[in-house]
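User: quick one - fold this with calcium ion bound?
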Amino acid sequence: MRHGAVALLLVVVFLGGCALFVGPPVAEFDIRPLVVYAGDRVDLDASRSDGSLVDYRWEVAGAIEHGRTLTTSFAEPGIYSVKLTVEDGQGRTADVEHAVTVYARSGTRLFTEDFSDGTAALGRWPLDPTWAVQGESSIESIHGSAGYVLYVNSARATYHRRATLLDLPPLRVGQKLVFSVRAMPLQTQEEHTFLIAPGRASMDLPPASLPYYVFSSTYGGSAIVEPSAAGTATPHPVVFTPPVYEWHTYTLSYARGTFEFSVDGALWLAGTMEADPSRGGPSWLVLGDESLTEACQTYYDSIVVSVEE
Ligand SMILES: [Ca+2]
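Assistant: Sure. Structure tokens for the protein plus calcium ion:
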């Protein structure tokens, strides 16, 4: 009896084991480390997959690799797809896909511009053709520490702006994007709008892009303008009227759902916003002088975009 019971148990265990092997494969993998920065070593481990597996096929940001484990890295911040497909001896497959968010380390400078190469810099700041006509801005040399600067001159009744495309990184909790620009508005007459827009996702100002800073005499001063998901724009007034013919350093920083605006290192306005820049992606950095009257001008210099803690 006892031997029979043991034999039966062994048969059950054996069949149970068999049942595991004949079941369909299961794909799963782990990613280490849990928080990934650009350039870091990343270990992918498919040991948690199940089945009598003969192949582990990885698709990492579009590239194909094989092996139960894989060491890789991501040179640039962003959100990447990693897909694992496992195959067993019977040719059956299973797959699983995870997104890997790759962050920039705090302190990383994403962008710098001081126009030091003179007129060549204009090539990095194309005109927005929907807003301006050619020839109304230039690189000028200013004696002293400023050197070359971008001079935006809306010399007739039109809006004028130049923009460069940035690829913003996703933000880890605790990180913020910081945009800093040195600027000097030259005139502040009616309808003169001096603009720093460090985060419109396109020139069409779609919903969920970042807020931007404007000075407009029409509105009686400065404002952070927040595009909403509904397509409207909410102004947050800033108690600050930039004097003409004077340099100021304007700094906008964004974290998840919050923004701060500083002038010359002093905080002028902080608030919450609807837009969430934490996923990063393509974004325009816009410098403009938007005017419905003649001869509104602004100088720009020393632009830095960085990720800070
Ligand atoms: Ca300069």
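One thing worth noting: Residues 109-308 form a domain with the Jelly Rolls fold (CATH 2.60.120.200).
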